[in-house]
């Protein structure tokens, strides 16, 4: 059996209040993650759009941890999304850049053989993504253990952790 290459991609800005929630989730997950693995890579990125293609190419599956602001759920809600579920919400670091969903479409057209077969996002609905602080708002901070549990469950289901 050929091992699946999996990427755990942590997105956000750790100094913009709730936008840094994914970094807190990763730290909560660390005791359950292998220190070294040929099958699981962990990357942290403070970018969006086309820049994310460099990270996801050549992996079979990608699990993204990120802050989401859909306005449909109260802050602190943890949900698992597919990319198409968040066409308007996935990180766009500038109004002049494309969203992640559009970037993936281009990646599939240009390098289909290098694109992941599955991408999931564990998103935490956030409140404040504008204030410069490394602290999370209380509702978002309270969601960190749940988001970590959901993400670890996905990685375990993919066979990336034991």
Explain what the structure shows.
With 162 residues, this protein is α/β, with parallel strands linked by helices. It has a single domain (6-48, 60-90, 118-157), classed as 3-Layer(aba) Sandwich (Rossmann fold), CATH 3.40.50.1450. It has 4 helices and 5 strands, in the order βαβαββαβα. It has a 5-stranded mixed sheet with strand order 2-1-3-5-4. Strand 1, helix 1 (21-29) and strand 2 (40-45) form a beta-alpha-beta unit. The two termini are 17 Å apart.
Write the layout of secondary structure elements.
Layout: E1 6-11, H1 21-29, E2 40-45, H2 53-56, E3 61-68, E4 78-82, H3 100-110, E5 118-125, H4 138-157
Parallel strand pairs: 1-2, 1-3, 3-5
Antiparallel strand pairs: 4-5
Helix pairs in contact: 1-4
Record keyword descriptors for this entry:
162 residues; single chain; 4 helices; 27% helix; Rossmann fold
